[in-house]
Amino acid sequence: MRVSDLLQDLEVWIKSS
């Protein structure tokens, strides 16, 4: 599990909300 993956997931989640 990478921190960068979490950050990317967060970014996508923010953009889609």
Notes on the protein architecture:
The chain is mostly helical and 17 residues long. It is built from 1 helix and no strands. The chain has one helix spanning 3-16. It is rod-shaped and about 25 Å long. The N and C termini lie far apart (24 Å).
**What share of residues is helical?**
over 70%
Could you give the distance between the termini?
24 Å
Oligomeric nature of the chains = single chain
Using the alpha-carbon principal axes, give the shape.
rod-shaped
| Secondary-structure element order, N to C | H
Mean pLDDT: 96
Structural class: mainly alpha
Q: Major β-sheet, in short? A: none
Low-confidence stretches: none
Gyration radius, to the nearest Å?
8 Å
Count of helical segments?
1
Number of strands: 0
Instruction: Report the portion of residues in β strands.
Output: under 5%
List keywords for this structure.
17 residues; mainly alpha; rod-shaped
Give the SSE map.
Blueprint: H1 3-16
Can you describe this structure in just a few lines?
Helices cover 82% and strands 0% of the residues.
